[in-house]
Amino acid sequence: MATRPYRPRGGSKRSRATRERIVRAVRELVAEGTFHESTVEQVADRAGVSRATLYQHFRSRIELIDALCETFSANPAIMEIRSVVDQPDGRSALDVTIADAHRFWSAEDAVLQPLYGLTGIDPAARELVERQRADRRGEMDRLAANLDRQGLLQDGTNRRRAVAVLLVLTSYETFRELRAEGYSDRQAVSLLQESGRTLLLRAG
Q: What are the Cα distances from residue 123, in Å, to 2, 118, 133, 136?
């Protein structure tokens, strides 16, 4: 999950279009499971640009993956999470955040599954995952603070514990485990929302 907005580097409309084409090529190669084996030439060929043009926009594989990660911020689920974690109705904020986290993982699963599987051998993939985890932790901390501020957390559940629970409920690993168990997206969201309310919120 990425929270920083995607901002293409400055330049002409043509330059921005070229950059977007390169990022699309990276997304395709990642989804096919071949990005970690692809050369710069292969990425450039897929994007329909020269190697020199690619290097004008991106200096490394890590920058290519970083740009891909930033595009996730345009996902409506991520945009909604950013807008709801501080809303006055904390119970609704919890439900919406859990649902949107799952919706994001579902929408980006074809790209994320190969990347998460490469964290042990590919520095670019590892950086993306670490960045996503840091961004998600920041949003879950905001949500936990909001629930605490509204007096909605159960007795004995402090903000630190609330963040830990939220991280489990909204993680990509949890999403994948529920998929493996045969849960549909709707079933998974319902289970996770019920778990969030049971583990975190006061009755009522």
A: 18, 8, 15, 20
Q: How far apart are CA 18 and CA 53, in angstroms?
A: 9
CB 74 within 8 Å of CB 4: no
> Residue 4 domain-assigned?
no
Which tokens in the block code for residue 188?
Answer: 């998974």
Structural domain includes residue 2: no
d(CA 117, CA 187): 25
3-state secondary structure of 92: helix
Same domain? For 99 and 56 the reply is: no
* Confidence band for 166, pLDDT divided at 50, 70 and 90: very high
CA distance from start to end of the chain: 31
Q: What is the pTM of this model?
A: 0.83
Q: Is residue 7 part of a domain?
A: no
